[in-house]
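A common beginner's mistake is to predict each chain separately and then try to dock the pieces by hand. The better habit, illustrated here, is to supply every component at once so that their relative placement is modeled jointly.
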Amino acid sequence: MAKQEDQFKKVVSHAKEYGYVFQSSEIYDGLSAVYDYAQNGVELKKNIREYWWKAMVQMNDNIVGLDSAIFMHPTTWKASGHVDAFNDPLIDNKDSKKRYRADVLIEDYVGKLDAKIEKEVAKAAKRFGESFNKEEFLNTNPRVLANKEKGAAILKRMGQSLEKEDLADVKALIEELEIACPLSGSRNWTEVKQFNLMFGTKLGASADSAMDLYLRPETAQGIFVNFLNVQKTGRMKIPFGIAQTGKAFRNEIVARQFIFRMREFEQMEMQFFVRPGTQKEWYEKWKETRLEWHKSLGLGEDNYRFHDHDKLAHYADAAADIEFRFPFGFKELEGIHSRTDFDLKAHEKHSGKKLQYFDPELGESYVPYVVETSIGLDRMFLAVFSNSLMEEELENGTSRTVLKLPSVLAPTKAAIFPLVKKDGLPEVAKKIVNDLKFDFNVIYDEKDAVGKRYRRQDAAGTPFCITVDHDTLTDNSVTIRHRDTMEQKRVAISELKNIISKEVSMSAWLQK
Ligand code: GAP
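With all components supplied together, the output reads:
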């Protein structure tokens, strides 16, 4: 656990030191759970967004994009169920006066059981060496099985109690598990209460006529209310999807773990409209498709798992998370939900407008069913960033910090150095920068010794370093060094564009 915490602290400080993520309003001591993306962070975020957008919109001829407003008519949120049901169960510790999400306290308890299982696996892998069969061990070891069973039973009971709004039982579960406040260490808890997560604001200048609004807590509703506009103007035929990325806002109670849970964050959501009765099939298809997208980035296949929900949201008939192994354990990265016709029907009812599709093959109109894929861009950023940060021992006994970002997502694709700041080398290096910058984000760096410049770029995540030396002046060749292998090659300047392009091009990665 301490090792995980150390690793996570390194992630947070590296993100600041290398211009990825800053605390918002830092000069005023920051604003809790609100962050700013700095010069490198904004590029990484943009690249993740683009990688998602291309995979969703550009690669699918039946999915189109949308950019709906953050402000929506307030009845939207009544119809969607957010006014009445977008709540978190809260519990206060009477001694520390600290407020917690009751479900998170219980999930953290189960997370500790998972950590115990991982420890058993690591111990056994060490003991049995080559002959270790992880799958078999997980399915037969009595201690592992007992912890797995215990965790599953706890989550099931919690899910059922939340579903039934039986908050007294959620508190009873916390007491039975003897969960203590991490701050005070006491088990002196209040009752569990529900708390609505939407931020309210007002539209209009005068107090009497101002209209109460909410900052949207998800981008999905902007898609639902535009469903028929897009279908008609785009002449879309079912099945089809509408995708959008944009800000969402939630007054999160447990806002910790850096950019994992923020109050202002960005979502990348796609609603796929299907014929009623076919939703299960599409749900399974989108589960697989989204997992493949994640795997294409090469962050390690073992770092993902599905978690099928016991407790379904008010709108879903099936739901699963794609969980990722963050530095603090497996946690939700993306949700795939079969949302039935709940949202469109609710908007029909509250607006009095028909939101139906005429299916020419069936010769009838119906309210489509919806399968949704919803991923947090900031959470994806954290997954990519934390997984890429490593400390490597080198053959010469030294070590290096390297950010092995998937090169397709790296903020800067190449750094170009003159070996020395004289003899015309800076001019040649700057010319290379000026040629390459039409195709890639590249930078020029002449400060410090070349070895130090390499280390700086390794830590910033730049896949290539290109060094101009005295030979360049006569043979037009440069040394290109690869971040991950540290291999250096002599290549012609004219080849650079091709070499970089081969490694960082989005189309090549998407075709993987
Ligand atoms: N439209 C469905 C929806 O919003 P959700 O599970 O509440 O579903 C979807 O959110 C995704 O948005 C999550 O899987 C997560 O990646 C991201 N997300 C949710 N709340 C977040 C928060 N407070 N901070 C950062 N990301 C968040």
